[in-house]
From TrEMBL:
GO annotation terms (biological process): exocytosis; protein transport
Any GO MF annotation of the entry: phosphatidylinositol-4,5-bisphosphate binding
Organism: Fagus sylvatica
Keywords for the protein's UniProt record, in alphabetical order: Exocytosis, Protein transport, Transport
Keyword hit for Transport: yes
Classification via Pfam families: Exo70_C, Exo70_N
Domain Exocyst complex subunit Exo70 C-terminal: 286-636
GO cellular component, one term: exocyst
Similarity comment: family membership: Belongs to the EXO70 family.
Protein name stated in the entry: Exocyst subunit Exo70 family protein
Signal peptide as annotated in the record: none
Tagged with keyword Protein transport: yes
Protein role: Component of the exocyst complex.
Length: 706
């Protein structure tokens, strides 16, 4: 009970305290409300203006909400353009450096710079369009804040300037244009610094040495790789023309230097000099040799380099450059020289040179077709075909006129010394050369081509028949010339010399063609004229001192006959001292048989004569020649005359034969002459026996006065 009362009293105390607190709060709130009244009144007074301000803000928020999408679309491209522009400016600084320090890095920078320019070109216009749209929206939505308008205009101006930057970068003087110029300079530097003329005059060596010489003039792999990279870059930007021009200039200059070392001044020789066969003959040999060197090594090298340097962009550029290099450096000059040769005087000796030229071109046919087979080499192809046509026509024209050329010399005079005419020596050697393994296949091929052009079939007998005609005309010439001699002895010597010359053709191509019967007939004529010469020249002289009737002669008769012998011998010796027997073996044997025929008779006569001297000392003064002197004089007859340089003028031992009637200088083949001398020594013993028989019998017939 007591406890309950206590709790009730405590509750009452707490309630009283709560009420007291609430009362105090109410009083404080009442006081605050009293104070708030004036303030609310003031707020109430300001509400209309605040309402108007809020309404204006709401309207602007709605306007910006309408163009927010346009602004967001414009911000992205514009920000990207500005970022790429900053990158492009940094790359532009790098392009100012020299590409030779690191070419491939320089090319990488160029690539990135071009990509940046393309990005600016593609996106500046887009960003400008978006900003122009924003500007129109701002104006259309009555957003009159000048700050916004100024910023939009400024952004537009910046983007427009960036668009112009891309265009200016590609113009002359711009960073990209300057970069391409740097590449062209580097391209030329790489070519020039690695430009080594090819030592063509040193290529007549072993294959290993040739490879080394060619490698030294070629471009190394690293250099080629750099050139390829530059070519590829310039081509991708349509800047290849200048690069190709530089390549042609540098490599053409190098090729010219390579050819200049060979001494090709003769290629620029005046046209008038081509009619001088003696001068041109040596140049044609050089032409063939130099053309082979140029084609096999120089142009082959340039062809390979062109293909390697330009291989990444196709063959058209490579072939375009190569054709210009070949044309500028000298191939056209080679072809022009050949053309001048074909158009010059049609001398027989030129036939062999035309055959040489055809052989050279024919051997290089595959090289010409491979190197100059493209469309860019049309001029070279046309000139080559024209040259071959002129060579074939010229060679055939000369070949068919050879018999006529021989016939035209019939009106000329025979040699005054009875030697083999230079025409005969030339023609026999000439025919042997035409029939040789070196020339006959070439001549046959030319005739086949020429016949095909005329729609005719080649006949195998064309060449032999023409040679027969030539030799027939030579025989007719000899018949005419021998009749021109007033001295029958000289005529016999002349015919003996010429028939002996023909006999020596045994075993040669010409001798084989003419046949054994032809050679045998000349052997018979040789022996006949040898005997006839001895009879006509010395038979009457021997009769003066023959043993017949000497015993019945008185001293006065002996002196008279000796004087007659001396006079006849002097006359004959003086006359025949200028005569020539070309072949050494024939000359030695004729002199030997003169000695054998005359000296025994003379010695016997002197023995009888010395008996007279013993009786009459005055008879000794008529003794003009001793046996030894007479032998020496007879042995010295018929010697070839030496020129100022020690070369014999006649016979097969001559080094050069010039026959002015044909207007030619022919250097006889040393191998052919050696062969003739070998054949002469082989046949010597056989011929000695035959001539000995003729001489002995003829002298026996002529011991009595004629």
């Amino acid at each position: 009970m007591a406890m309950a009362e206590v709790e009730s009293i405590e509750n009452l105390v707490l309630a009283r305290q709560l009420l007291q607190t609430s009362l105090e709060k109410s009083r404080a709130l009442a006081s605050a409300l009293d104070k708030m009244g004036p303030r609310l009144e003031k707020i109430n007074q300001r509400l209309p203006s605040l309402e108007a301000t809020a309404r204006s803000i709401s309207m602007q928020q709605c306007a910006f909400a309408g163009i927010r999408g346009h602004i967001d679309c414009a911000i992205g491209p514009a920000a990207a353009v500005l970022k790429v522009f900053d990158t492009a400016r940094e790359l532009e600084k790098s392009l100012l450096s020299d590409p030779c320090s690191d070419l491939f890095n320089y090319l990488s920078i160029m690539k990135r710079f071009e990509e940046a320019l393309r990005f600016l070109a593609d996106n500046c216009e887009l960003a400008i369009k978006w900003l122009e749209g924003v500007f129109e929206q701002v104006e259309d939505n009555a957003v009159t804040n000048d700050w916004y308008l100024l910023n939009v205009k400024k952004s537009l101006r910046i983007l427009q300037e960036l668009q112009v930057y891309e265009e200016r970068a590609r113009l002359d003087g711009g960073p990209l244009s300057a970069a391409f110029e740097n590449l062209e300079i580097e391209f030329k530097r790489l070519l020039t610094e690695n430009n080594v003329p090819l030592a063509l005059d040193s290529l007549a060596t072993s294959a290993a040495e040739q490879a080394s010489i060619i490698a030294s003039s070629s471009l190394t792999v690293p250099v080629i790789q750099k050139l390829q990279a530059i070519v590829e870059k310039l081509n991708s930007d349509n800047q290849l023309e200048m690069c190709m021009s530089v390549y042609v200039d540098v490599r053409s200059s190098n090729a010219k230097q390579s050819l200049h070392a060979l001494g090709l001044d003769y290629l620029e020789m005046s046209i008038a000099k081509f009619d001088d066969v003696q001068t041109v003959e040596g140049y044609i040999d050089q032409w063939s040799k130099h053309l082979v060197l140029a084609m096999k090594h120089l142009f082959e090298l340039e062809y390979r380099l062109c293909n390697e340097v330009f291989k990444k962009i196709g063959s058209d550029a490579a072939m375009g450059c190569f054709s210009k290099i070949a044309s500028h450096s000298g191939i056209l000059a080679f072809l022009q020289f050949g053309k001048h040769v074909t158009e010059s005087k049609k001398d027989p000796i030129k036939l062999l040179k035309l055959l040489d030229m055809f052989a050279s071109l024919n051997n290089l046919r595959m090289d010409f077709n491979r190197l100059f087979g493209g469309e860019d080499c049309i001029e070279i192809q046309n000139q080559t075909r024209d040259l071959i046509k002129k060579i074939v026509n010229g060679a055939c024209e000369i070949f068919w006129q050879l018999p006529l050329q021989v016939e035209l010399q019939r009106r000329s005079s025979p040699p005054s010394d009875g030697s083999v005419p230079k025409l005969v020596s030339f023609v026999t050697c000439y025919c042997n050369q035409l029939l040789s393994d070196d020339y006959r296949p070439i001549l046959t091929e030319i005739l086949v081509i020429h016949q095909s052009w005329k729609k005719e079939k080649y006949q195998e007998g064309l060449i032999p028949n023409q040679i027969y005609e030539i030799m027939k005309e030579i025989g007719l010439n000899l018949d005419g010339w021998t009749n021109a001699y007033e001295d029958i002895s000289l005529s016999c010597l002349f015919m003996m010399n010429n028939h002996f010359h023909f006999c020596n053709l045994e075993g040669t191509k010409l001798g084989d063609l003419m046949g054994d019967s032809w050679l045998t007939s000349h052997e018979q004529y040789r022996d006949f004229y040898a005997a006839l010469y001895l009879k006509k020249s010395w038979g009457r002289i021997l009769a003066l001192i023959s043993q017949k009737g000497l015993t019945s002669l008185c001293g006065e008769d002996l002196v008279e006959r000796l004087n007659a012998f001396n006079e006849a011998f002097d006359e004959t010796y003086k006359k025949q001292s200028s005569w020539i027997i070309c072949e050494e073996c024939l000359r030695e044997k004729v002199c030997q048989y003169l000695v054998q025929a005359i000296l025994p008779v003379y010695r016997s006569y002197l023995q009888d004569y010395m008996l007279l001297v013993e009786q009459d000392a005055t008879a000794g003064k008529y003794l003009k020649y001793s046996v030894q002197n007479l032998e020496k004089m007879l042995s010295s007859l018929f010697q070839p005359k030496l020129t100022s340089n020690g070369i014999t003028k006649h016979g097969h031992v001559l080094v050069s034969v010039k026959y002015t009637g044909w207007g030619m200088e022919n250097k006889l083949s040393s191998l052919f002459q050696q062969k003739l001398r070998r054949l002469g020594s082989i046949k010597k013993a056989h011929w000695i026996g035959k001539i000995k028989f003729f001489v002995t019998n003829q002298f026996r017939m002529t011991l009595t006065p004629i």
